[in-house]
Specification:
- The complex is a heterodimer.
- Chain A is α+β, with helices and mostly antiparallel strands.
- Helices cover 17% and strands 22% of the residues of chain A.
- Chain A has a single domain, classed as Roll (Ubiquitin-like (UB roll)).
- The N and C termini of chain A lie far apart (30 Å).
- Chain B is of the alpha/beta class.
- Chain B is 22% helix and 31% strand.
- Chain B has nine helices and 26 strands.
- In chain B, the strands form seven sheets. A five-stranded parallel beta sheet of chain B has the order 3-2-1-7-19, covered by helices on one side. Chain B has a five-stranded parallel beta sheet with strand order 9-16-10-11-12.
- In chain B, β14 and β15 form a beta hairpin.
- The model of chain B has no long low-confidence stretch (mean pLDDT 96).
- Classes of the chains: A alpha+beta, B alpha/beta.
- The interface between A and B is medium-sized, with 20 and 28 residues.
- Bound molecules: flavin-adenine dinucleotide.
- The site of flavin-adenine dinucleotide (FAD) has 36 residues of chain B, from α1, β2, α8 and β22.
- Chain A: Pfam families: Fer2 (PF00111).
- Chain A: Belongs to the adrenodoxin/putidaredoxin family.
- Chain A: One of its GO terms (biological process) is P450-containing electron transport chain.
Chain lengths: 106, 392
Amino acid sequence: MVKITFVDAGGTARTVEGEVGSTVMETAIRNGVPGIDAECGGACACATCHVYVDEAWREAAGEPEPMEEDMLDFAFDVRPTSRLSCQIRVKETLDGLTVTTPAKQG
Amino acid sequence: MNAPIVIVGAGQTAAQAAASLRQGGFDGGLVIVGDEPHPPYQRPPLSKKHLAGSFAGERLGLKAETFYTEARIDLRLGATARAIDPRERRLGLADGTRLAYSRLLLATGSRPRALALPGAGLGGVHRLRTRADVARFQGELRPGARLAIVGGGYIGLEVAATARELGLAVTVIEAADRLLSRVVSPVVSRFFHDLHLTHGVAIRTGAGVEALEGDERVTGVRLSTGETLGADMVLVATGGLPNAELAAEAGLAVEDGILVDEACRTSAPGIFAAGDVARFPSRRYGRRIRLESVQNAVDGAKAAAAAMLGESPLYDPVPWFWSDQYDAKLQIAGLSTGYTHAEVEGDPASGSFAVAYRDGGRLLAVDAVNWPRRHMEARRALAEEPPIAVAP
Ligand SMILES: Cc1cc2nc3c(=O)[nH]c(=O)nc-3n(C[C@H](O)[C@H](O)[C@H](O)COP(=O)(O)OP(=O)(O)OC[C@H]3O[C@@H](n4cnc5c(N)ncnc54)[C@H](O)[C@@H]3O)c2cc1C
């Protein structure tokens, strides 16, 4: 299990456990973390699981693929650290990962 | 007057409506009655990753397991709603329970159209709508086995792609002269036709099915040409029908779906409908439409929740949809029905292209293949088109 912290737009942090091999989006949904809609369930088709990856974790989380980048550009309040959380795989090297959810999705 | 809000059906529409009711501040009783044994789950993976075996059933749930208790939702699974009494505001369940409701949301979804043909009841003949359907079907998927798919729509083609990945010999049989004929233009049909051929799928377009052959188990599919294709199993994927009987029997207005207004209200006071089962007026398209998509389940549920809380939402979405087949992602924005011209953007041979559909100057829809940016742009552009009146 890998610890992931979700900070909401108001600053409240929730730390939950993610399963290696699943995604950061799934981890949020399964733990009832608010602020992530994930309407398409992880098909990279809706851009409603947008998060900001903490600067310290940016490299470990990796860069978005072109497909993800295209979708991201249409999310709300996109920043250089933006990712779609359905495209971030949970792995050991992400233990401690912190992401912030935007004020709204879509 | 303290009766709960009751939602019939425990699918994506129900889950979203329940969540939105709580988010909207509704504090009263909330009951969901669903006939399947599972809490609301995602259907899209059923023909894709879940069927392929790479996405376990536990991952399909739409909400955390604790969500329903924490949100004080009385989730009654394995329970079938049998009758509505709109005057008394009561819902009767199959086990004899009668539930009083203050407001009722019909979110009963749709089901696969059955083949009304000889042999349709044989063993080895499948449909794909629920987790139980997948479990039955998956048990028979063996590399080398011959699978005939009746219907060249999204679900048929997604299953064809998954079954090829699992090593089955697949034939798709489509009555129309091309695949996906009801939803996309010939260019897009051609692209997917070629894609499936490349992956070794046999495709029979313009081929009607006369009968399924076999004694107990299906052994073949007899075509209208007289020819019989040998098959070890058959998947019937010929489109969906709304589960609107419950509403019709209660006297609600039904016309290929439960008729609702722009705020998801049915013809009976206090009864709402949303998702696959509802037919709503679209000013974007100037007619009543019924959609079977995640977009419509989510956005329709949000609108229905707002309406149940006394607001006056205007549900008139830009429809969107996706389909994954092999490495191709088709994303559709809008509805292309009735287009006067279709313009191809990019080169289909490159694997990434789009088709924009217009009626005169009005943009109706854009199909984008492996081009998410074009899809998202289209959603924005479609949202800008001015409304058209819907004839009553
Ligand atoms: C295989 C498959 C793949 C799909 N892929 C995509 C995709 O890629 N993209 C996309 O946008 N959409 C896709 N869809 C469509 C999408 O899943 C549906 O539009 C969505 O699930 C509709 O949600 P719903 O809640 O309205 O209906 P449903 O999900 O059908 O839920 C309705 C529930 O109500 C239950 N019910 C019915 N009558 C009663 C009753 N009388 N009492 C109690 N319960 C009752 C039903 O059994 C069902 O569990 C797919 C669908 C399928 C089947």
